[in-house]
TrEMBL record:
<dbReference type="GO" id="GO:0003677">
    <property type="term" value="F:DNA binding"/>
</dbReference>
<dbReference type="InterPro" id="IPR008920">
    <property type="entry name" value="TF_FadR/GntR_C"/>
</dbReference>
<dbReference type="Pfam" id="PF07729">
    <property type="entry name" value="FCD"/>
</dbReference>
<keyword id="KW-0238">DNA-binding</keyword>
<dbReference type="InterPro" id="IPR011711">
    <property type="entry name" value="GntR_C"/>
</dbReference>
<dbReference type="InterPro" id="IPR036390">
    <property type="entry name" value="WH_DNA-bd_sf"/>
</dbReference>
<keyword id="KW-0805">Transcription regulation</keyword>
<dbReference type="InterPro" id="IPR000524">
    <property type="entry name" value="Tscrpt_reg_HTH_GntR"/>
</dbReference>
<dbReference type="GO" id="GO:0003700">
    <property type="term" value="F:DNA-binding transcription factor activity"/>
</dbReference>
<keyword id="KW-0804">Transcription</keyword>
<feature type="domain" description="HTH gntR-type">
    <location>
        <begin position="20"/>
        <end position="87"/>
    </location>
</feature>
<dbReference type="Pfam" id="PF00392">
    <property type="entry name" value="GntR"/>
</dbReference>
<protein>
    <submittedName>
        <fullName>GntR family transcriptional regulator</fullName>
    </submittedName>
</protein>
<dbReference type="InterPro" id="IPR036388">
    <property type="entry name" value="WH-like_DNA-bd_sf"/>
</dbReference>
Length: 232
């Protein structure tokens, strides 16, 4: 008889959690476990099991799950409840189109307000990406680079929507760079984006972003076609 592994046991809980921090602690713990693969796609997330694990009521658990669903990391499936979302969904290509609209607007709002510290933060991400070989860290650095350029946009709702798309890409890159045969990502696109940002050339920056995201779309199309060809 095969014993089913309790994947939630991979989440460490260190002592009692203050009630006012319960939702954020649960959300962050689950988010990290999803992003680093401890909770793989399709894993069912049971509210009662989480409540018992963290020693809290179901209320902060429900709130944390709603936040993760809004971020695209969980989805509600009939008869199963909340499950870890797939890495690539049917609307992933549409998501990239929406990402361009949102991120282009963020660039237009943020770029005139960026200072040298912001540029240094973006440059540091590029330097780290040039030598990083850990696929998980590559995904994170990619997200942090883009966020450094958008950070000064005053529209916080816009930035929250953008973060959701970047988290989705981070998770995809973390698990599929090697399978996609991309290996270490070249940084020409990122360096061009930073160059135009430093020059305060908004439209050149937006045009470079469009080309950069289109390359991401092309990679996903190739990945999906490859997965389809492997199906019996």
């Amino acid at each position: 008889m095969t014993v089913k592994k309790n994947l939630l046991s991979s989440i460490e809980v260190h002592g009692a959690i203050p009630a006012h921090l319960a939702r954020s602690v649960i959300e962050e713990s689950l988010r990290n476990a999803i992003l680093d693969g401890r909770l793989p796609c399709g894993t069912a997330i049971r509210q009662q099991a989480l409540a018992a694990l963290f020693g809290v009521s179901r209320m902060p658990v429900r709130e944390a799950l709603r936040q993760l669903e809004a971020q695209g990391l969980l989805q509600v499936v009939q008869y199963k409840g909340a499950v870890v979302a797939p890495l690539i969904q049917d609307d992933s290509l549409e998501t990239y189109a929406l990402r361009f609209l949102l991120e282009a607007q963020a660039l237009r709002l943020s770029l005139p307000l960026l200072d040298e510290e912001d540029f240094k933060a973006a440059s540091a991400c590029i330097d780290a990406l040039e030598v990083e070989t850990d696929f998980g860290k590559i995904g994170t650095l990619n997200r942090l680079f883009h966020q450094a350029l958008y950070a000064k946009a005053p529209n916080k709702k816009l930035l929250a929507l953008i973060e959701t798309g970047l988290v989705e890409e981070e998770r995809f890159l973390r698990f599929n760079l090697e399978q996609m045969g991309l290996g270490r990502l070249p940084q020409d696109d990122h360096r061009a984006l930073l160059h135009h940002a430093r020059a305060r050339d908004v439209e050149a920056c937006v045009n470079e972003l469009e080309q950069h995201l289109q390359r991401g779309v092309n990679a996903i199309i190739r990945y999906l076609q490859d997965q389809k060809s492997k199906q019996p």
